[in-house]
Amino acid sequence: MSQTTIFDELESQVRSYCRNWPVVLATAEGSTVTTEDGREYLDFFAGAGVMNYGHNHPELTEPLIDYLRSGAIVHSLDMHTVAKREFLTSFRDYVLKPRGLDYKVMFPGPTGTNSVESALKLARKVTGRQHILSFTNAFHGMTLGALSVTGNSMKRQGAGLPLTNTSKIPYDNYFSGAVEDFLWLERVLEDSGSGVDLPAAIIVETVQGEGGLNAARPEWLRALADLCKAHEILLIVDDVQAGVGRTGTYFSFEEAGITPDIVCLSKALSGYGLPMALTLVRPDLDQWEAGEHNGTFRGHNPAFVTGAAALKRFWADDTFEKQVQERAAELRDGLQKIADGYENAVVKGRGMLTGIEFPDKEAAGKIAAAAFRRGLLVETSGPDSEVLKTMPPLTITSEEVRRGLGIIADAAADVLGDPVTTAA
């Protein structure tokens, strides 16, 4: 029996990442993952943004091991625990208070799509309205409510039924600057004869992680927030992938200076790859009845332990934030040098969620495959997988960034030919 036979024999056809990376992973440390036969891969994927602090960070591993060995409770539904108290205290002290944010913290379930579902549900409950607006090329999750506000047609088709009570509106630069931001939406919301119902909420990603690394301009986000406030529409920011430091600040919306009504978080929250999600809610919107949004795995105590440790280690001051911004600048500069060598290749994204869009829609996938053969994990993004997407651990070193960029440059040359120009 080969080392992958059992997966082909028993696992569903729905699996995806393993098709592009047909190896059996065994160990991981920092920005490196290693297969069972000893092959090392530099990780520019980070578990789709889960491993922001790298793999098996020792300052998170030790408190987790200590907790598990102590006999402390692991599963507790939504009951009070020492671990939850420590996480909530740390989240308040290191994230909310320093940013002047006043949110109630809801534990909706273990994944990002759980957070999105709870946000949509609460927005409809509080406003009494049904309709939700989302954006072209958005991705918000794979359950029915989250799918209804997702743009990708292949993922939407998997629902098997109509996805209703939502509409899509153009994301920033969808018309390449040819149309004034929100001109149409502002007009129809003000016109009682437009036939367009006032929505309960608008949900947005500041960087569309799965939709092609489209990054909204700060002024566009501010205009969106102003529009929502003027019409009493709730603004939901989905920070599942772009949050927890990925764009250079803890929340991706900080640069724009806006304060969403509801924020969705997951992926990197536990800091260790343990399932965990939060929905941050403006206090006056916290109108749930007890148990009205329920779930067995809303609070995983080992995730509280590593999550609190990560907050203390990385967010007690601005040292880590500055380091991430430095690495992000190095990553973007390197990607820009690669893109400059190929006609009409464009660097997209923000922070450590950055990539290159190629005019040949098959190029990014071929480059990712060539990079894998050279020892780099990197994926694609966009409706046609036309963007090579890099999102390494935020703890990556400058040397590892350079090494990964070198692999991408070699892979691009292998697929597209030598670059036309070579940056100095």
Automatic annotation (TrEMBL):
CDD domains: OAT_like
Top-rank taxon, per record: Bacteria
Enzyme class: transferase
PROSITE patterns, alphabetized: AA_TRANSFER_CLASS_3
Pathway note: Amine and polyamine biosynthesis; ectoine biosynthesis; L-ectoine from L-aspartate 4-semialdehyde: step 1/3
GO molecular function: diaminobutyrate-2-oxoglutarate transaminase activity
Cofactor(s) listed: pyridoxal 5'-phosphate
Protein's UniProt keywords contain Transferase: yes
Keywords: Aminotransferase, Pyridoxal phosphate, Transferase
UniProt EC number: 2.6.1.76
InterPro entries reported for this sequence: Aminotrans_3, Aminotrans_3_PPA_site, Dat, Ectoine_EctB, PyrdxlP-dep_Trfase, PyrdxlP-dep_Trfase_major, PyrdxlP-dep_Trfase_small
Family label: Belongs to the class-III pyridoxal-phosphate-dependent aminotransferase family.
Record PANTHER family: DIAMINOBUTYRATE--2-OXOGLUTARATE AMINOTRANSFERASE (PTHR43552), DIAMINOBUTYRATE--2-OXOGLUTARATE TRANSAMINASE (PTHR43552:SF2)
Protein name per its UniProtKB record: Diaminobutyrate--2-oxoglutarate transaminase
The species this protein was found in: Myceligenerans salitolerans
Name of encoding gene: ectB
